[in-house]
Specification:
Blueprint lengths: L1 H28 L3 H11 L5 H12 L3 H17 L3 H25 L21 H20 L2 H24 L5 H22 L5
């Protein structure tokens, strides 16, 4: 049963990486732009100030500073509780995510959706979405750690909560118009790939 799970996880890593490479090619070639631009206009449908404030607040939860701080705090908490493998699992996942994101942005060199939001865009490259990548990495890695130590029912709640948080943060980047869909999708996918790959290589859990 364990071998079957490992096989499925390893296959999803390869599939995820393949999808990211395919999306990157579409982005670099410009083939993804028409669909991305069309979809982004659907999110720009007259948001009220309260809606804008809500999505801004959600987006703040995925900021590098926020996720970085949470990663440090949760990792140190795991270490204080004597969960060394959990500590290293969280640190490695977070470290890979934060180290690879700027490299990928520089390689792909995609500009933000400036034609739609020329005055409100962050001064950085667009692909992949760091918010989507960091939040998916953090919340999935925490969910993996917690699921080892809680009951099956609580584990389901943990997983649903983690995925919902990551999804909402990713969605906020589209609602705010600071990323294209392919940026966000690739970022979330990379977060999943990072966590699953580290899970396989580290053979977590193992105290």
């Amino acid at each position: 049963m364990r071998d079957a799970k490992l096989l499925v996880r390893s296959q999803t890593v390869y599939i995820g990486l393949g999808l990211v490479v395919a999306i990157s090619i579409l982005v670099i070639s410009g083939l993804a732009t028409p669909f991305d631009t069309w979809l982004l206009t659907k999110f720009d449908a007259g948001q009220t100030p309260s809606e804008l404030a809500f999505w801004t607040m959600v987006s703040e939860l995925g900021k590098p500073l926020t996720i970085g701080t949470l990663t440090v705090l949760v990792s140190l908490g795991a270490l204080a509780l004597g969960k060394r493998s959990a500590f290293w699992f969280l640190v490695i996942c977070g470290g890979i995510s934060f180290a690879s994101e700027p490299v990928l942005k520089f390689i792909v060199h995609r500009t933000r959706p400036v034609e739609l939001y020329p005055e409100t865009l962050p001064q950085s490259w667009s692909f992949p979405s760091g918010h989507a990548m960091f939040s998916m990495t953090f919340y999935l890695s925490v969910a993996y750690v917690l699921s080892v130590y809680v009951s099956h029912k609580i584990s389901i709640i943990v997983w649903i909560s983690a995925l919902m948080m990551a999804f909402m943060i990713a969605l906020s980047r589209l609602e705010l118009g600071v990323h294209y869909f392919s940026d966000v999708f690739a970022g979330a996918l990379l977060g999943y790939v990072i966590v699953t790959a580290v899970l396989l290589l580290q053979h977590y859990p193992a105290e």
